[in-house]
Specification:
Number of strands: 41
Structural class: alpha+beta
Helix content: 25-40%
Number of helices: 25
CATH topology of the largest domain: FAD/NAD(P)-binding domain
Length: 815
């Protein structure tokens, strides 16, 4: 038996159900095909009792079915009832195996042998049936699962959730919701930001972590699954935790083989790519339309709107505009040229490199969280040292980057289609240069949240940003008058590699031709002397290694390995040789760097007998510092206990400089020999504290100092994210009054009065002073530099960059 309908809708999730509801309301013959025995398997498979969000709140819902935020069960009940009342033609247990034919006459084959003929087809099948699986040793063990139906089933277990999207966060929250279940819940996030998740979910997760119900492990990934245990790759090396159950929620991919068998093309070969779609959701196979998560729009409101719109388009409604049209029209309203929303979207998709792989639907979504502005020629886009973590893309025109603050006329051009501001996005540092419009320009500014989500979900955009950041980092490191054209071959062949803590990049004695640039993290250099590894030096991000073997053809002279979880850029050695041959200045610089390293090696060799004890002590001290987090520091406070007299002047000076609240705990921390690492901020190269700051209150200064401004709301996320316990939440001290106000009106603490004690004695009964995050800011803005160092009477306290302290040159100075 073969049925014939105008529209066949495959998949009864929110998108497909809404499409069927619209077809029923318009009296269009249709069938809604669902392979399961129930409607809306997308929501049905949510965990029991899950709260379903209705975001974005500003978006109007278009659908013949109701939807508002609420629990999973009532939403499903409402949709079941409304589908029945609306007369939607549903066929459950209808698994589609093939779609053949052409627009106006498609044949849909089902697994039970039946066929359905349709004039048009709407695919709303989603992606959740194809979860990404755990790919590490032991990933196929029976206690690894990819679905959580009822969190209440699990009692007194150590459960690890892998995945930091909405599904992973919601699973972790469900498992930890009831303290009576006594579950120990840990969630792993490969990065530092929860870029894929809704802000509300991230907030709930952080609150649960703050109350001790969930442990968040950032910069952590699974290395091996064992019965009852999970081996983790962390920023500081491998760690084993107890684990009775793993719930892996690492996203999913489209059922590409089936979709391509229908004659539908994707935007690229990347596993995360989506089908090519027209503005009316039509694919490259005329007559077949794609909506919902398969179109790159996973939010329920978006999906339901698409279902409604797709049927309207198929019914001949040519005037219908998308529900987000008013939002985008307002976004583009102030721009010159009088273009429509569609025209602006087409221009952005064609001109901006990071948007090339996005569908129109995805582009609309990202632009809702962005700003688009017009700039006059010469107008400043941002100033050097300004705060900012957004990403800029040039839609029209070009910009000029001032490379020398003393000579504003010296600029480097960035042309139409490319990006800038990626350093602020990646590292959180202040803007490194002043950027002005070189001509009338249209600039898209993606918020940090939107930019991180774009990079996490669009492989094409991620590749573009990676390529540009590599190019600019190489130009900065190698200098010597190089241009982007000079290093194009190097950049094209470059490969970004992630290295876990302790992983070897170069091995002493090996033959090798490639060069490695440290993109993120840090490295330590060791040389085997007398059968023992001797610490030579510490290399921060921005350094490069491997040139010695390349230039003179000798074996690797030392072993280089990651001090912490790091990223390196592997550069093809032969391409680098060709670059050196064409650029004598670069060759001269490389030879100078090589000579300095050879001097270090020669010094160690010459002293290996005379100063063997000194070398051993230095190596042990260096490893102690690396083990205590110095590997990711940019500025660290160290105390020589041979000189320290315990006067606590350092702590008192810190308190005097910060309204009575010291940022330093001198006695806390670890000691090796006479070297003490107190509890004080290390000002990490990639600060963990910045990962989830809702008001974006944590910034990096021009000298690398990490500070917290007055917009802090006291959420405590930074305190929980800091692995070194150098941030605490403390009450806000009262503002110091003027001398006359204190003398005659008794306002506020006076000279010599501790601010916190004054607040405690004068606060209204029962009132709790608001708390904010307190941490070292390196006394930014205070003349003379860090007060702790200035106040030390014996010189025991020093603040240094690790690369300056962890160097064999210190031994040379001592010798």
């Amino acid at each position: 038996m073969t049925d014939r309908v105008r529209i066949a809708i495959v998949g009864s999730g929110p998108a497909g159900l809404s499409a069927a509801g619209r077809a029923a309301a318009l009296g269009i013959s249709h069938v809604l095909l669902e392979k399961e025995d129930h409607l809306c398997d997308t929501i049905f498979r949510y965990q029991k009792g899950k709260h379903v969000m209705a975001t974005p709140t500003a978006l109007v819902l278009r659908s013949d079915l109701e939807f508002d935020a609420g629990k999973r069960e009532p939403i499903l009940e409402i949709w079941d009832r409304q589908a029945l009342d609306a007369g939607i033609a549903v066929r459950c247990n209808a698994n589609v195996t093939a779609i053949t034919g052409e627009a106006g006459d498609f044949t849909i084959a089902l697994a039970d042998g039946e066929t359905i003929r349709a004039e048009s087809v709407i695919l709303a099948i989603g992606t959740q049936g194809n979860p990404n699986v755990l790919r590490c040793p032991g990933g196929d063990l029976p206690h690894v699962q990819y679905q959580l139906d009822d969190p209440g089933e699990y009692i007194d277990e150590h459960i690890t959730v892998i995945g930091s999207g909405d599904a992973g966060i919601e699973n972790a929250l469900g498992l930890a919701a009831d303290p009576a279940q006594r579950n120990v819940v840990t969630i792993l996030n490969r990065g530092a930001d929860f870029a894929r998740a809704k802000a509300a979910n991230v907030k709930l997760l952080q609150e649960s972590a703050g109350s001790g119900r969930i442990t968040i492990r950032t910069d952590t990934s699974p290395a091996e699954v064992r019965p009852g245990e999970l081996v983790l790759d962390t920023r500081d090396g491998q760690e084993v935790i107890r684990c009775d159950r793993i719930i892996a929620r690492m996203g999913s991919t489209a059922p590409r083989k089936f979709i391509e068998s229908c004659g539908i093309a994707f935007t690229s070969q990347d596993p995360g790519a989506f089908p090519v779609l027209s503005p009316v959701f039509e694919t490259t196979r005329p007559g077949i339309h794609v909506i919902g998560a398969l179109a790159g729009y996973p939010l329920i409101k978006h999906c339901m709107n698409q279902g409604y719109d797709a049927v309207e388009f198929l019914n001949g409604n040519t005037t219908l505009r998308p529900a987000d049209e008013p939002i985008l029209a307002e976004l583009f309203a102030s721009l010159p040229g009088g273009r429509s929303v569609d025209e602006w979207l087409a221009l952005l998709a064609a001109n901006v490199e990071i948007f090339r792989d996005l569908s129109v639907l995805q582009l609309r979504e990202y632009l809702i969280d962005s700003e688009v502005r017009a700039y006059r020629a010469g107008e400043t886009i941002f100033e050097r040292n300004a705060y900012g973590s957004s990403l800029m893309a040039i839609a029209l025109g070009s910009v000029a980057v001032e490379v020398d603050p003393q000579k504003p006329e010296r600029t480097v051009a960035i042309e139409q289609g490319w990006i800038f501001g990626e350093i602020g996005l990646i590292s959180g540092r202040r803007r490194g240069a002043t950027v002005r419009a070189a001509e009338p320009a249209i600039i898209v500014e993606l918020s940090r949240t939107a930019a991180l989500k774009l990079l996490a979900t669009s492989p094409g955009a991620s590749r573009v940003v990676t390529r540009i950041s590599i190019e600019r980092q190489l130009l900065q490191i190698f200098g010597s008058g190089l241009t982007a054209q000079d290093i194009a071959e190097l950049v094209t062949g470059a490969e970004v590699q992630e290295k876990r803590a302790g992983e070897v990049v170069l091995t002493e004695g090996d033959a090798g031709r490639d060069i490695y640039v440290i993109r993120r993290g840090s490295m330590i250099v060791e040389k085997t002397i007398g059968g023992k590894p001797v610490f030579l030096s510490y290399l921060p991000a921005g350094a490069y290694v491997g040139e010695m073997a390349l230039i003179d053809g000798s074996p690797r002279s030392a072993t280089v390995k990651a001090a912490i979880k790091s990223e390196v850029i592997r550069l093809d050695g032969e391409a680098f040789v060709r670059l050196l041959a064409s650029k004598p200045e670069l060759l001269q610089k490389a030879r100078a760097d090589m000579a300095a390293r050879r001097e270090t090696n020669a010094f160690i060799e010459s002293r290996k007998d005379t100063f063997s004890d000194v070398v051993d002590m230095y190596s042990s001290t260096a490893r102690f510092l690396i083990d205590n987090g110095i590997g990711e520091a940019t500025d660290v406070l160290l105390i020589d206990e041979n000189l320290c007299v315990g006067c606590d002047n350092c702590e008192k000076a810190c308190a005097d400089s910060h309204d009575g609240l010291s940022r330093l705990d001198r006695e806390a921390g670890r000691t090796y020999a006479s070297l003490h690492v107190p509890t004080s901020c290390r000002h990490c190269e990639h600060p963990h504290c910045m990962a989830d700051c809702p008001p974006d209150a944590i910034r990096r200064g021009p000298d690398g100092e990490v500070s917290i401004d007055d917009s802090c709301i006291g959420c405590g996320n930074c305190e929980r994210n800091c692995p070194y316990d150098v941030i605490r939440m403390d009450s806000v001290p009262p503002e110091k009054p003027g001398l006359l106000s204190w003398m005659f009106l008794g306002r506020g603490p006076g000279p010599g009065e501790p601010d916190k004690r004054w607040r405690k004695n004068h606060a209204p009964a029962g009132a709790e002073a608001p708390k904010i995050a307190i941490k070292c800011d390196m006394c930014a803005g205070i003349d003379g530099g860090p007060a702790c160092v200035r106040a030390c009477p014996t010189g025991a306290a020093i603040r240094v960059a690790p690369e300056d302290f962890l160097s064999v040159s210190k031994l040379e100075d001592d010798a």
